[in-house]
Amino acid sequence: MKLYVAPYAPNPRRATMFVAEKGVSDIEVVTLNLPEGEHRSEAYRKKSPFSQVPTLELDDGRCLTESRAICAYLEALHPEPNLMGRDPFERAWIEMWDRRMELMFTMPLMLWVRHGNPVLAAIERNQNADVAQINQAQAMRMAKWLDGELGTRAWVAGDRFTIADITAACGMDFAKMMKWRPGDDLPNLRGWRERIAARPAGQVAA
Ligand SMILES: N[C@@H](CCC(=O)N[C@@H](CS)C(=O)NCC(=O)O)C(=O)O
After folding, report:
1. Domains of the chain, earliest start first
2. From ligand 1's centre to the CA of 86, what distance in Å?
3. How far, in Å, CA of 79 to CA of 83, rounded?
């Protein structure tokens, strides 16, 4: 299998962090240069109709896009270590937290960076300072709320590491491009990120 990714991009990193936690080693990682538009080539668009990374290309040529779908496929192929839930309730619980992290934390962080950092103007062709500002504010509100949650347990969805931690960390690390990382005002969020750094997922370059 081949996994198409790009440096710094948070969605492919969700997949590569997931692969690292699973300890899967038979996936060839193919790196595309987004600022140079490699993902917009006709050949790549056949794999990913919206010209996005990540894409997982199976050995028979079938392709999966959407980072969460790729993770779900890898979870089914490699059930251990479990990252998406073992029984119906736990699967739904982890999905709930993962969607909260994706939609309410990582998404605003990504939009803040994409609309606020001039380096990304080649990708986000209509950068808008208001979009950056609104999403920064939403992300900071969520960071504060999450800091409170992480004061009650070690990991986002409970007492063990799951895909929800990966999703939140990808967004948070991307925001380093806006020079933001949790400081003294968010000690639980900072401690949680330090715990991730000690794990296989934490070895995947941001
Ligand atoms: N919902 C998709 C989003 C994928 C996505 O937005 N990928 C970004 C990189 S993080 C991308 O390929 N951007 C290229 C572009 O917008 O031109 C997923 O989770 O995989």
Report:
1. 2-77 (3.40.30.10), 88-203 (1.20.1050.10)
2. 28
3. 8
